[in-house]
Predict the structure.
Amino acid sequence: MIFVKPERVFLCFNRCMNKLLVCLLSFLLTGCVAAIVPLPVLDAERFSIRQLLPVDKIGLMAISADGRMLAWSDSDLELFDIESSQRHSLLNARAETLRWSFDGALLAATTYMDGESHLYVYDRSGVAVFDTHFAGRVGRLQWSHTGQLTAGVLSARKFSFGTHIKGQLLSWDGRWRMTKIPLFETTIKPTTAAQLADRLYETFDFDLSPLEDEVLYTRLYAPPAFAATRYLVLHNLQTGEEKQIASLPMLVGKGRLAADGESAYVTDGKGQITLQDLWSTRILQQWTGTRFDYDPRSEWLIADGGLYQGQQLQVQLPPKSFFRLSSGGHFLLVSWNRQLYLLSDYSAGERTKIGGVRMKKLQKLRRLRSRGLIEQAEYLQARERLLQ
Amino acid sequence: MKLIPFFLFLLLVSPAQASERDGDCLVCHQQSAAERQLQTSAHSGDLGCADCHGSDHDAIDRGDSYVGVDVCGRCHQQQLEEHRKSRHGMGLHAGWGCTRNVPGRDKQECRFCHREGDTQPISTVQCARFIKQSSEMGQIGCNRCHMIENSCAGCHTNHRTDARIVKDPRVCAKCHMGPDHPQWEAWQTSQHGTLYNALGAPDAPDCQLCHMPQGSHDVSGGLTAPPSGKPYAQQKATDQRQIMLDRCQECHVRGFAARELQNADAVRLQTLELVDQARAIIRDLDDRGLLDPQPTKRLEHPQRGKELVLDGAMLYEDISHIESLFFRLNKYAAAKTFKGAYHQNPDYTHWYGNAEVKLLLNDIRGEASRLRERGGQGRVGVNGEMDEKALEVLQRRHQRGELGDSEYAEKKRLILEQILQ
């Protein structure tokens, strides 16, 4: 339930008007608006809002876990050190995906051209520490808490009778080894392939569980004589067993695993975001919105510009703002009105870590559940005892 | 006036007409054995070649005008009905598998399972052992017996009608003998067989006296269990037993016969229990992945793929050693035990049967122990294991009904307990 007192709205309005006045004076004196226009959010004093720099247009962006390094890509890929204002050009090509590691030490980016993707990993100084290329197009990159990088790759081959697509995960172990994990292969009918055209790769999305043993992904199913469907599927990486979670529209909608690995944020792209239990399909929480991001503890969620703690709206970003949480969830990067802002200090805690032995046992229990060797009730009972 | 067409019809089908029409056939077949046999049979003068074979010589040459039971049934309707409701009436169902995907098969084989123009088989029971054979082996080793469903000639021979042939118990011996169902041997060396050898019919019991009384073609009358040995439902078994006792009573006091058959029933159930023990050992090994080779790592079963098959569709090839032992135990030794018991043959019941069952069960236990040891599970029981494999074994046993719900839940709880420690 969201409740905002009228006097707070009035207070905020006053504050904004004052700032706009200052802004107008500043414009008259310096001719520069960008330097001082504040981000108009309610209760701004509760957070730290830092104005970063002006931007011409919204591109792909990512902020490091410590909120210091900003990477963005439009026609090329650049790295910006917020503290020193130093700028590094990393790549003379448009990146399709960008992702900082959880410790903020490494930045991963991919480019795509002529059926082939190129993966680059840079350190904070902009030096490439790893790069490789492979067939297919990367839809998403994800770092694990243990420093492993995973790319979701969709490759397609066109035939007269349809297009054969293959969805797989490519994992980089942080040193030199790449591992392929095939998730699905299917042939889709020519009409569906033609409708999706260049956006075919967007039908494949994935999210690795915080326990790194399961992956929630979307797979397209459109064989001849069947209606095209896109399924959200939970896949256990150790057993290969799968569980269908939901059906989603072709190009919108995704699922993201929550911190406990037992529930997932699911959006159907039609204005509803739900946190649902993956095994009972019970809806645990619900928000309004289509785009969302959340912190690794699953405490904060930002949906269409509304930053929620649980279901309580804490910050409402102005309309048409672009947002992205840092990998650790401590910083919120906002792009609005051709300005970049960094919102922080909204008390995002550290995620609870599970120790090695307990983690292994928990993974084993999840493996047993995925194979149907134990029931959900038995699993929950055992999990509760293990995490006590 | 209305009767004129009828009289014309009688003239057309009269023996004289039949003989005349045979003239065409006899141009070539005058000296054939078939012709000589027909002339000395009860059909002589009544039937011509074309009455059974049709008149399309090309079709006959192609083998398309097979004289099946339907042809004989036109006149011998009662016999056909009895034949069809008996086990002989499902000889092909039990023995054949669909061969359309098997290379080298004769297309004519289709007619044994499918009525002309019908893609649905008469029965869905299929025989994997048949599918595994070469076409030639299938013809001789399988079809010669299992074609009985659609062949009166299998017992009666092709053109003769002499009742002496089908009243001789040796006519049954062609199929009802051998290691898998030695009814012939068990009967011949029993007291019944001894009497028959000394006195002959009708003073001594032969196959026909007990199983086809008064010329009945229902050979299954009086039997209380199918070939697998698993008993029929209670009511059916009771009814059938009464039918058999009526036959026994012609020579024996009913109480004596009932006791003898009850003893045989008991032997059969005791034997099946041993078969089940052996089967459980092998299933358990399969559950644990200890068979050598596992069903998943050998040629697929033609009907059930990579599944372990220990029932009537079990193969005797492309299986592990321990399964070979089980095949002998189940298909040979167990069958000898209860076929021997029902035919009152002490040696077949005991030494060829029961003793072999128990010796083979010993061998299976020994081999299982060796396999478990090799797989590193020699001394660990299901209760002592705290791994995934143990849960998998429990689940399969539960699915097979070997573990009740509460027992299954309790065993799972113990394993989870150990995982959490």
In short: Confidence is low (pLDDT under 50) at residues 1-36 of chain A. Chain A touches chain B at residues 361, 364-365, 367-368, 371-374, 378, 382, 385-386 (CB under 8 Å).
